[in-house]
Amino acid sequence: MNPSHVFDPDLHEAGSTAAHGQCSYHAPGGEGNGTCTGEAVVSFQDREGRWQSGCPLALEQLVEQGEIEPLGQGG
Ligand SMILES: [Zn+2]
């Protein structure tokens, strides 16, 4: 399980979906399904160690799947 952080655009690659404050989890080419217009609320590292951003729905799904820790409970 990966730690989660309150969304911080500085963690993400400049010019990326996440750096623009949008959810990269549901973005085309991301790991999630479907489209999403949600604003990113969480920054987390995926299984390959890449920084991703997630909207509230993504956060919920990822915590449910045991992929990341709930916000505020990381070290
Ligand atoms: Zn999303």
What does this protein look like?
The structure is a single chain. This protein is α+β, with helices and mostly antiparallel strands and 75 residues long. Helix content is 12%, strand content 15%. The protein contains one helix and three strands; from the N terminus they run βββα. It has one helix at residues 56-64; strands at residues 4-6, 42-45, 51-54. A three-stranded antiparallel beta sheet has the order 1-2-3. The protein starts with a strand and ends in an 11-residue tail after the last helix. The structure holds zinc ion. Residues 23, 25-26, 36, 38, 55, 57-58 line the site of zinc ion (ZN).
Helix/sheet category: alpha+beta
> How many alpha or pi helices?
1
The span between the termini is 12 Å
Task: Indicate the mean pLDDT.
Answer: 87
> What does the radius of gyration come to?
11 Å
Largest sheet: 3 strands, antiparallel
